Amino acid sequence: MPKRDTFTITAVLERQDGPPVAIDDVLQALTDALEEIEVYIEDPDRDTESRFDTVGVTVVYPEDAPARM
Fold first, then answer.
1. DSSP string, 47-65
2. Which of 8, 9, 37, 68 is the Cys-Cys partner for 20 at CB 3.0 to 4.6 Å?
């Protein structure tokens, strides 16, 4: 089985339009989007490609985050 690595991704979200929404809805949408990410790395020197699948997502936000954003 391939070795698994954990990466930390920091996302800064800014609402562009529309009314504020519940933070739980924002976190669920972000989690869903991250679960769908597929990463491909091409190695032009070897003419190969590696594919990485997302096997788990944990979204954490500060306790003092607003209830709506």
1. TEEEEEE---------TTS
2. 68
